[in-house]
Amino acid sequence: MAQVLRETRAHGVNLSFAELSERVTQKLHRLKYNQTPELVGAKDRVTAKLPWGSAKDAGGKVASVKGASVKRKKSKKPTPKRRKKTALSH
Questions:
Q1: What's residue 56's pLDDT?
Q2: What is the pTM of this model?
Q3: Segments making up each domain of the chain, as ranges
Q4: Please, is 80 exposed, middle or buried when counting C-beta atoms within 10 Å of its C-beta (0-12, 13-18, 19+)?
Q5: DSSP alpha helices (H): ranges in the chain?
Q6: In DSSP terms, which residues pair with 49 in a beta bridge?
Q7: Alpha carbon of 90 to those of 81, 82, 87: distances in Å?
Q8: How many CA atoms lie within 13 A of 80 on its CB side?
Q9: CA nearest 43: which of 16, 24, 8?
Q10: In the prediction, which pLDDT does 65 show?
Q11: 2-10 and 17-30 are packed helices; what angle lies between their axes, rounded to 10 degrees?
Q12: Residues lower than pLDDT 50 in the chain
């Protein structure tokens, strides 16, 4: 899917989710994969253009996404909050 998206963006085309799904399906069949992607969702969302930038923003070139290959830190368990001592509590 990512390869199809990069190729179309390189040609200055911004696809909808449905168009991307159709092109991925065609490519998988050409490559003899026995897979058929399913795109499920509300019609207005499925037919909407992809929100991750646009071909126009890429200037006909593949746009790099800042921070796309950043390794994420493992989350630490939150430390329990300590109650403040008051004159009445011992």
A1: 57
A2: 0.55
A3: 2-58
A4: exposed
A5: 2-10, 17-30, 43-46, 55-58
A6: 16
A7: 17, 14, 8
A8: 3
A9: 16
A10: 44
A11: 110
A12: 59-70
C-alpha neighbours within 13 Å on the C-beta side of residue 29: 8
Token pair of 86 as six digits = 């008051």
Across 2-11, b (16+ Cβ under 10 Å) vs e yields: eebbeebbee
Token pair belonging to 60: 């006909």
Q: Which two tokens stand for residue 72?
A: 């994420």
Residue 2 carries which side chain, given as an amino acid letter? Answer: A
Beta bridge pairs of residue 16: 49
Q: What's the burial of 36, exposed, middle or buried (CB within 10 Å: 0-12/13-18/19+)?
A: exposed
**What does DSSP assign to residue 70?**
P
The tokens for 84 are: 């403040």
Look up residue 49 and give its DSSP letter. Answer: B
